[in-house]
C-alpha cells in the first residue's frame, strides 16, 4: 500500500474501467433488488440465517465495491449516488428488522444473534447488521439498552472512510431515533438515562464531524472546490446529531449549559475547518430553544472568537441576533436591571469587540456590519435605551479613528456598510429627531464623504416626510439643519470634479424645501425663531439653492403672520411682531434679487406679500406695504422684459386690493404709476386693455382705511375709458380695433350700470354705432370674428333685458 | 429482564485526542505533470512537461518543487529504478513509434491530443512511483523530482532523510 491518501493514485485501475457513474449506480440498484428478493424469500421460509446472508450481500453495495469478472473493483460514487444506494438498501433492511421483531414476539429467542452477525466478513455489512439487530434488541426490551447503545456507537469507529462512515452513523441515528433514554433518573439502571443519550449523541457527533472534516484531505488539491461542494451536500448528516439532541426533552438549560453546549463547541472550535464551523454554529442557533441561547450567550460568543478566520462570522452573529430579536423569551431577568449585572446587550457588545480583535485581518466593512447587527439588537430589544445605541456608535467611531478613516469614499464597501448602519435608527425609530439625541450619530456620520453624507441626508429627509415628523423646537430645527448641511452649503470636501444631474439637484433641494413645511412650533414666537434660524442656515449659499429654499420660508413667514393676527387678542405686541416678520420677508425676497435669480420669482413674492399684508392690515403697515408694492413695480420696470402685459395686470390687480390701506399721497402715486405704465406698453391693444383695467383702481375699491374717504372717482374712470377709445382708434388692424371696441363697450356698460354719473347713454350709443360700422368691413367668415360678433350680440342682449336701466339705447 | 447481550465485552480503546481527530494527514503526496511545451525545430524538436511535487513526507528535502522533464527523462528514471531496486516498476505510456514515422499528414507526436494523452500517462506513472515507499528512498527519484537538471553520471544510492 502506498503511504498516501491521494485516492486518485490507488484508484487508477477503476478509471481505466469503462464503468461510468450512472452505469455503476444502475447495476448496484439491480443487484440490491435481487439480493433483497432473495432475503425476503428466505425470511418467508423463516430461514433467518440465510436472510441475513442475503442482507449482508446487499449491504456490500455500500462498501462501494463492484465485482467485475470476479475481481473487486472500487466504485467511484459521488455522495449523491451513494445516498441513493443507501436509501435503497436501508429501505430493504427494514423488512429484516420487522421480521425479527415479529419472531421475537412469537416467542423465538435469538440470544446469539448479536454475536452471529459479527461473523460477517466485510465490515460495512457487519456494522449495518449489528445496528439492525441492536435496535431490535432495544425494541423488545430484552437486553440492556444502555450497553447496546454504547456498544453500537463505539463499534461504528470501525469505518473510517469518510463517506461510508458518515452514512453508517447516520443509519445509527436513524434507527435509534425514538429509542434513546429521555429521563433524568431511570427506574432501571440498565435502561440508561439522559446522560447516556447525551454521551451517545456527542460521541457520534464528534466522530461524524471528524469524518466530515477529513473529507477535505481526500483526493487531489485541484479537486478542492468539488470536494467542498460535496461536503456541503453532506452537512445535514452531521447536523442531524444536533437535531436529535434538541429533541431530548430532558435536556434543560442547566444540562445544556454545563454539558451539551461546551462539548459541542469543543468539537466545533477544534476542528478548525471553516465549512464545518460556519454550518454547525448556525445549526446550534437554529435547533436549540431561545431560552438556552439567552443563558449561554457568553459561552457561545466566546467560542466565536476562536473560529477559523475564514468563517463568515457576520452570518453567524446575524442569525444569532435575529433569533434574539424575534424571541418572546425575556432577555434579561429583573435582577440584571437592578443589580448591575451584564445585560444581553452588554455581553454582545463586549464579545463582538473580542471577536473583532481576534481577527486582525478582518475587513473594515465586516467590522461595521458586525456592529450593525448589535445596533439592530439594541434598538429592537431595548427601544428605550438610547445609551446603548450611543455605545455601539461610539465603538464604531473609535474604530474609524484608530484607522484614521475619514471621508470614506462612497461606493466603497465600508461606506455602504456604514450607510446601512446609519439607516437603521432612521428606519426603526421613524423619528429623525431621536437621532439628534444620539451623541455619536452625527460624529459617526461625519466619517462619510460628501456624496455619502448627501445620500444619508436624502434618506433622512424622505423618512421625515413619510412619517410627517413635526419639528417643534428651534433646537431640533437647528440640529437637523446642521445634519443636512451637505444639502445646504458647499462642504469643503466637495470633490472638485463633482457634477450632479440637474434633475437630481432639484429633487434634492425640493426635499429641503419640503422639510421647511415640517417645522412647526405650537409657540408662535418660537416658530419665528425657527424661520430665522433656517434663513441663517440657508444664508446666501449659492443662488441655485436659495431659489428653492427661500420661497417656502417666505410663505411660512406669511403663514405665521396670519397666525399672529388670529391670536391678536391675547398678544398685545402682535402688530410689532408682524412688522418684524414682513421686514424679514422683505429682506429675504431682496436676497433673491441680489442673487440675480429670474426677477419673476421675487416679483410675484412681493405681490403676494402685499396681499397678505393688506389682509392682516396691522397698524402702521402702510410703509412696508408701500415698500413691497413699489419693489414689485421697480422689478417690473427694470428686470421684467417679457410678458409685460401680464405683469402689469398683476400689479393693477394687486393695487386694486390694497389701495384702501394707503393715505392719499401714496394712493394717488400708486394709481398714477399704474396708469402711466399701462399707457406705455409697447403694443396698442395691450395699452388699451391695460388702461381699461386701470379704471378699476378708480372705482371698485373700499373706502380709504385712514380717513374713510371713498376711492370712487367717476371723472377719472371716464378719462381712462376715453383714452382707451382713443388708443383703439389708433389701431391699424380693423379686426383688432373691432375687438377692442367691443371690450370697451363692456366696460361702459359695467360703469353705466354701476351708476357712474359721467357715463351717459349717448356715449354708449356712439360706441355701439362705431362697432356696427366697424363690423360692416369685416371678413365674417373668420372664426375669431364670429366670436367677437357673438360677444357683441350678447352685450346687446344684456342691455335689452335690462331695458329699464338701459333706456334709450339704439339697438 | 434486561441483560447484557452476548459478546459485547470489548477491548477498551484509547480515546482519540482532538489533534489526532482533526489534524491534516501527515502523508500528503501529489505530483502533477502539467504545462507541456514543445521546443526546437525539425529533428531537434521535443516536448517537455512541468513536474510539480507537493508533499509533507519528511523523506523529501522540500515540501514543494517544480522541474521540467521530457519523455526521455521519465525513461531514464524507470531504467534506474529497475536497475537499482526490487520494485516492479509500472509501465510508461507507449513511445508511439508509428507517430514518429516520416511523411505524416499531421504533426505526429506533437499533436495536442497526443501530448495530452501522454501527459496523463506520465502523471499516473510518476504518482505510482513516487507513492511507493521503497522508491521514495532511491536517489534517482529525488533527483528526478527535485533537481533542476538530471546528472546521468550520478552514483546510485539510497536517501535517508528522516
From TrEMBL, chain A:
Residue segments, region Disordered: 1-24
> Where in the cell does this protein reside?
Membrane
A single Gene Ontology biological process assigned to it is: intracellular protein transport
Q: Which InterPro entries match?
A: Vps35, Vps35_C
The record's section on Pfam families has:
Vps35
Question: RNA-binding: present as a keyword of the record?
Answer: no
What segments bear the compositional bias annotation Polar residues? Answer: 1-23
- One Gene Ontology term, aspect cellular component: cytosol
**Record membrane topology:** Peripheral membrane protein
Which UniProt keywords are present, listed alphabetically?
Membrane, Protein transport, Transport
Q: Which domain of life is it from?
A: Eukaryota
* Record family assignment: Belongs to the VPS35 family.
The function of this protein is: Plays a role in vesicular protein sorting.
What is the name listed in the Swiss-Prot or TrEMBL entry for this protein? Vacuolar protein sorting-associated protein 35
Automatic annotation (TrEMBL), chain B:
| Localization of this protein | Cytoplasm; Golgi apparatus membrane; Prevacuolar compartment membrane
Tell me which UniProt keywords the record has, alphabetically. Cytoplasm, Golgi apparatus, Lipid-binding, Membrane, Protein transport, Transport
Concerning CDD domains, the annotation shows: PX_SNX3_like
Q: Might you report a single GO cellular component term?
A: retromer complex
Primary localization class, coarse: cytoplasm
- Matches recorded under InterPro entries: PX_dom, PX_dom_sf, Sorting_Nexin
**Boundaries of every PX domain copy:** 27-151
Membrane disposition: Peripheral membrane protein
Q: Name one GO biological process term.
A: late endosome to Golgi transport
Gene Ontology MF terms: phosphatidylinositol-3-phosphate binding
PANTHER family in alphabetical order: RE52028P (PTHR45963)
The protein's job, in short, is: Required for retention of late Golgi membrane proteins. Component of the retrieval machinery that functions by direct interaction with the cytosolic tails of certain TGN membrane proteins during the sorting/budding process at the prevacuolar compartment. Binds phosphatidylinositol 3-phosphate (PtdIns(P3)).
Provide the family line. Answer: Belongs to the sorting nexin family.
Please report the name of this protein according to its UniProt entry: Sorting nexin-3
Q: Which organism is it from?
A: Brachionus calyciflorus
